[in-house]
Write a structure and sequence with these properties.
The chain has 70 residues and is mostly loops. The chain has no helices and no strands.
């Protein structure tokens, strides 16, 4: 439902670096509303690149970390 207060609606603030066909395109920036907004799933303890997900994981395949941005 769009009226659920837990929904995140807006620009995901993707890095859009490299090619739009590369995984790096979909990394999230520090301004992303997806940071710390996902539900923790026990077996999903790493992101696409193998970086650890904490107790407050990010929405999507990538966990934000300071080493993502240049």
């Amino acid at each position: 439902q769009a009226d659920n207060p837990n929904n995140v609606i807006g620009d995901p603030a993707l890095a859009k670096s490299e090619s739009p066909y590369s995984p790096e395109w979909f990394e999230i920036l520090v301004s992303s509303p997806a940071i710390n907004r996902a539900i923790r799933i026990d077996r999903a303890d790493e992101d696409f690149f193998g970086h650890p997900r904490g107790n407050l994981p990010d929405i999507g395949a990538f966990e934000y970390s300071s080493y993502v941005e240049n």
